[in-house]
Each structure stands twice: as C-alpha cells, then as structure tokens.
Amino acid sequence: MIVAFSVTPLGVGEDVGEYVADAVRVVRESGLPNRTDAMFTSVEGEWDEVMDVVRRAVAAVERRAPRVSLVLKADIRPGVTDGLTSKVETVERHIAE
C-alpha cells in the first residue's frame, strides 16, 4: 500500500517547516520507501507498518503543536510492491511517447 499524507501543526504561526521536518524525519528513519514533495509525504509498505509510521509522524508534531491536522490518502493494492517508483515511471513513459 502507498499512503500519501500531510501533517500540519495548527496554532504555531505560518512558518511550519521545522514541525513538518519532525514528521518527515520519522518517515525517513522508518526504513520504508518514501518520498516527500511540497504537499505530501508518501510512504509504502504493509498496512500496519505504514499506519504506525503515520501515527508516529503525527505524534512527533503533536509534541510541539497545540493542534494537528492530518490529511491522508491510501492506495491499497495487495501484491504490488515498488509502487512509488513504478507508478511515476509509467506516467513518465507515457509523457515521452
């Protein structure tokens, strides 16, 4: 499964990069395949391990922010691995045609 999620601290002002970095650090240290862009962090793995990473990423932000918003989108396809890379490669291949 691939989960794309965004953790946003609320009540801390407009500059939230250091809080988001706490969440991304948790994801990167998990060892699961992941990718971060300007809007979301995507992580790939089995249900329990991915949701545990999301929970811990939220907790990391929650430790320093009075309120946290979580947006989550999941692609649940049993038997598919390396979706983070293969899905992008497929799109790039179509663009190149």
Automatic annotation (TrEMBL):
Pfam family name, one: Thiamine_BP
Domain Thiamine-binding protein: 3-92
InterPro entries with a match to the protein in the record: MTH1187/YkoF-like, Thiamine_BP, UPF0045_domain
Taxonomy, superkingdom: Bacteria
Database matches in NCBIfam families: MTH1187 family thiamine-binding protein
Annotated family: Belongs to the UPF0045 family.
Protein name as catalogued: UPF0045 protein
Organism field: Streptomyces lomondensis
